[in-house]
Amino acid sequence: MTMTVKLINPFPDLTVKELLEDKLLIPRKTRHFLRTKKHLLINDQTVHWQHLVKIGDAIELIFDEEDYPQKIIPFGDKSLVEACYQDDHLIIVNKPEGMKTHANQPGEMALLNHVSAYVGQTCYVVHRLDKETSGLILFAKNPFILPILNQLLEKRQMSRQYWALVTGQFPHKNLTYRDKIGRDRHDRRKRLVDPRKGQDAVTHIKRLKPYQNTSLINCQLETGRTHQIRVHLAHHGFALIGDPLYHDKPDLRLMLHAHQLSLTHPLTLEKIQVKAKSTSFEQRLAQEKS
Question: Does residue 130 carry a catalytic annotation?
Answer without folding.
Answer: yes
